[in-house]
Structures are given as C-alpha cells and as structure tokens.
Amino acid sequence: MAGAYHKTHGERISVSSISEYFTSAGYKFKKAKKVLTSDDPNYREKLAKITDALSQLAPNEKFFSIDEFGPFSIRMRGGIALVPGDEVRTIPQRQKSKGSLICTAALELSTNQITHFYSKKKNTEEMIKLLRRLLVIYKNQNRLFVSWDAASWHVSKKLYKVVGEINSDAFRTRHKTPLVDLMPLPSGAQFLNVIESVFSGMARAILHNSNYQSVFGCKEAIDR
C-alpha cells in the first residue's frame, strides 16, 4: 500500500501513518466472530415453545435435556497437566483400544440431576429405554418434558408411536405415570442442548489425562 501511494503521489508514507489515519477515522482492526446458527425454518417457534415450558414449569413437572456421549475409546489420553519443568509427557500415537463406551443420559433442568446408563448403539430402542426409566424414577410427577436434537433416532416413527401409547389414558391409568411432552430442538442447534455442557465438563474432568485399564474402570469414574 505504501509503495503504491508513493508511485501515485510521489510521496512516501509509513505503515504506522496509515494505521494512525484509519484509527483517527474511527476504524479498528477486529477479528470476525463465529455466530451460532440453525437452518431450521421453525427455529423461533420451537425455541419459544421450549422457553415457555421452562418459564412456566410447575413443581410437579420436570424438563429433561437428553443426548448421548460417544462412542469414545478407552485409551491413554493427553491433556494439560502440572508437571516438573524438565519432565516431558508423551502419549503413544498408536494405541490398542481397551474398549469403547456410549453414555446415554438425561439432565433434569430444575433439579440438575442426571439419569444415565451405557448403550451399545445410538438408536430408537435406547431412547425408549431411557423414557421408560424416567417414567419409573419420576412416577410421582404430572408431566415430563423431553428435549433432544434432531438425530434420526430421536424423531423416528417408532419412538413417536411409543410416546403415543405412553400418553394414552389406558396406559397412564394402569401404570399411574406422567404425561410425556416432546420438545424437539431446532435442527442444527445442538448448542441449545444443555446436557452438552455436562458432557464437556465430564470429558475435561474424567477423560483428559486418563489411562483407564478397562471399560469398567472408566464407567466407575463416570458414575462417581
């Protein structure tokens, strides 16, 4: 830029002078910010439904944020650690996995309580299993709000059919269970799923710098 200015006007100008000029004109050098977005055309409608349910949550109602963590392999993992100045920590590039885990979990937002178990796959059957477990644990409630992302097994016809059966008068009268109200998140908006922050904290506290010798050992750490 300085060279082009000299060629055109016959005068030399420094980079600092150019910077001062832009600053005095009110310009600043700023890095672009990444904005969380969703391509769901019903984004605002779905979000409003969820926020309304949360803002009006009654004492006999519970709201669950649901998702799966994994699959992740059980192996030696790196991370930031406090070590003596001359110590060099190393992690083998190639390792034999000791197994893998998928943790399926539901975070109840009003009490901050987690219900979890371990799954072999991510599918509709595991979601039905989780729903039935929540019905037993929270049997004394009137309504359970269930919120999850738009993964295919979260919106399958089979799952909605089971929810319809659970909400039928015959089922609820026989089993004395609460009503289940599905509150799907907008597609591409995993950042709205509160349980993701729990999984993130779990990864930092339990998986980083870990070297569990078995799947059982990792499960014990997660359960604690």
The portion of residues forming beta strands comes to 15-25%
Would you tell me the structural class of the helices and strands?
Answer: alpha/beta
SSE pattern: HHHEEEHEHHEHH
Helix % is 25-40%
Q: How many strand elements?
A: 5
Oligomer: single chain
CATH level-two architecture of the largest domain = 2-Layer Sandwich
Structure annotation, total helices = 8
- CATH topology grouping of the largest domain: Nucleotidyltransferase, domain 5
Major sheet details = 5 strands, mixed
Strand order of the largest sheet: 3-2-1-4-5
Please, what is the CATH homologous superfamily of the largest domain? Ribonuclease H-like superfamily/Ribonuclease H
Q: What's the Cα radius of gyration?
A: 26 Å
Q: What general outline do the C-alpha atoms trace? A: flat
Average the pLDDT over all residues and give the rounded result.
Answer: 89
Overall number of structural domains = 2
